[in-house]
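Re: folding output
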Amino acid sequence: MTKLYDYNPLVTIKSGSRTGSPFFCIPGAGASAFSLLELALSFPPSLPVYALQSRGLADPKLPPHSSVNVMARDYIQAIRQIQPTGPYHLLGHSFGGWVAFEIALQLLEQGEQITDLILIDTEAPDPQGCKSKSFGRIETLMELIKIYNMILNQPLPLTRKDFEEQSESEQLQYLYQELIRSGLFTTHSSISLLQGIVQVMQANLNTCYTPHTHYNGLVHLINAKEEDMQETQGHITRWKTHVTQLNTMLAPGNHMTMLSMPNVKTFIDALWSKQG
């Protein structure tokens, strides 16, 4: 049986020159470091980029985190292995934005400095929304399919009914075969990979988060142009209750395609020009 202390969240996406301060990036719910590859390649070539990958993703025998605060604490331990002291550069996509935000709060409390905090299409924490969170197995599968359909030209033709009469292992096998058919998975992809994705995503979807304090600094919030603008404006308004300074930007694409070329380079270049 795999032990918890065997788990290391750090994944090197881009080594860079290792002379500058690295970016530490947290993928979205159920996502791997690979989801941020094109984002990492959009940064200057000399910049090292690391991802922090969820427990239970690569090894489904490990239980996923169920608390943003604990996840952030564990990630900080891993971050300090690479960079013992600040200033730090942090980025998170979707659910990963909550984790990045909490990492920043905890590092500030530990006397460190944060140079960059970038949140990509991250919903604002909403304590009221926590009360209604109840994602079962099929709800999780449907959310995952919705994510996959954002990046597929030909959407997966799957509905709730396809899974309702199946056991969990049958559900996994059925979705696995459909993902191979779509080209998202190859025949060499292990079904345990999908098992890890599903269990982590379900844990993330059911995780509530309320920041314990205000963030006294600048936060960059990048939203996708193809998402509902009324919802986006609501998230911006709520984020303003948690931060001192909020810089907002719209990026081409949807929640997932905004992470791919050429969309991702558009907002990374824009952020970099602001820094310059």
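--- second protein (sequence, then structure) ---
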Amino acid sequence: MTTEAQITAWLATQQDAMLAELKEMVNTDGGSYDKAGVDKTGLQVKRFLEAHGIAVEVVPREKHGDCLRGIVPGAHEIASGNQQKNIVLMGHRDTVFPKGEPERRPFTIQGNIAYGPGVADMKAGIVMNMFVLAAFHKFGGAPGPLVGLFTGDEEIGSPEGRPVIENEARSARVVFNSEPGRPSGNVVTGRKGGVFSVVDIEGKAAHSGGNFEAGISAIGEAA
């Protein structure tokens, strides 16, 4: 049996384990501003990867969830050039939901569809990456070094995760972001970005009766 076949066969036996990890993660609060909750899901990821023999580096963040890097060595000793660069599997652990949402809407399965806060965006993708890393560590066969990058503040524009992502991406051969695709099954290959700007507008004070014409309204200038 080829390594690819071994990996595929092993992953096919892991559905119950995947669902158990997904249930735990979805039922954990993880809004972008809930650092404790997002870090709790990070501990879950770290525990899983280390249990499968994968080294994990924690990159502390001050206000938002820490970033994690799980590393699976590839066959880079016989590779050269671009093949020595990392293959990055990326995802974020934070969600858009307020604290307490998992209690109001806990993880459930109806038919073959799972429901719960963050089940699609993107805790299922996180779990998928965890098991892909575990499979390649167990059987080998990675075409290069694999790095699982798990961030904690994507839903608010990655204010603290951005430099970690940029640094990882610059040295990567390719990056796969495990957000959900479209209902049709199509894979998303590009998305719009976001820009957060801070604009300082300074007005000029003047007396409203004596010399109002000399005043400048900062609100008016902004409008």
